[in-house]
Write a structure and sequence with these properties.
Blueprint: H1 3-10, E1 16-19, H2 40-61, E2 71-76, H3 92-115, E3 119-125, E4 128-129, E5 144-145, H4 147-160, E6 169-171
Parallel strand pairs: 1-2, 2-3, 3-6, 4-5
């Protein structure tokens, strides 16, 4: 089923849409440690999953959000997509794709606010969650959350969102992450 068809099945008046897609690595690709390691196929795949896919979800689902009450569209992003918070370098494809997603969220939120005044569109940084995505990169001293606890935290953050926070990257504690 296409994204457009799925949106059609969902109907209108939606009050919550959560996009939990993401790609960091697989059996063929690992995050780059330096610019010299960039692989164009890996980078294109990262952009396809981390930025283009969510943008297409927004294209088809944002118009279907409720207009007469609060509605939220949240997409998973990452703190490493913050340009100003980048102190380590590396992970070029993932960082760039998540930065692109954060910009797409900001841009789409401006457009959405024109027709859906009570809507909130945000990118969420879930923190480090015990999943296959983060397992190879977890290290001592890093706060790693169980998936159910991470989901509960994000739902709590979503519940507290108001339209004045639309277009932002917000972490699992409810704090705004600098762009």
């Amino acid at each position: 089923m296409s994204i457009a068809a799925a949106a059609g099945v969902a109907g209108t008046g939606l009050t919550l849409v959560i996009d939990a897609t993401g790609f960091l690595h697989d059996a063929h690709y690992r995050p780059e440690k330096a610019i010299r390691e960039i692989d164009p196929v890996h980078m294109a795949h990262s952009f396809a999953v981390n930025a283009i896919g969510p943008a297409l979800l927004m294209k088809h689902f944002l118009p279907r959000l409720a207009r007469d009450r609060r509605a939220v569209f949240a997409t998973l992003s990452a703190r490493v997509g913050s340009i100003s918070d980048n102190r380590l370098g590396g992970w070029v494809s993932y960082r760039a794709a998540k930065a692109a997603l954060n910009q797409i969220v900001r841009t789409a939120s401006i457009e959405l606010a024109r027709t859906h005044r009570q809507a909130v569109l945000v990118a969420l940084h879930p923190g480090t969650v015990e999943t296959g995505l983060s397992a190879p990169f977890s290290r001592a001293g890093l706060e790693v959350q169980e998936p159910s606890a991470a989901a509960a935290r994000l739902l709590s953050v979503i519940d507290a969102l108001t339209p004045d926070r639309t277009g932002l990257l917000i972490d699992h504690r409810g704090e705004t992450v600098a762009p």
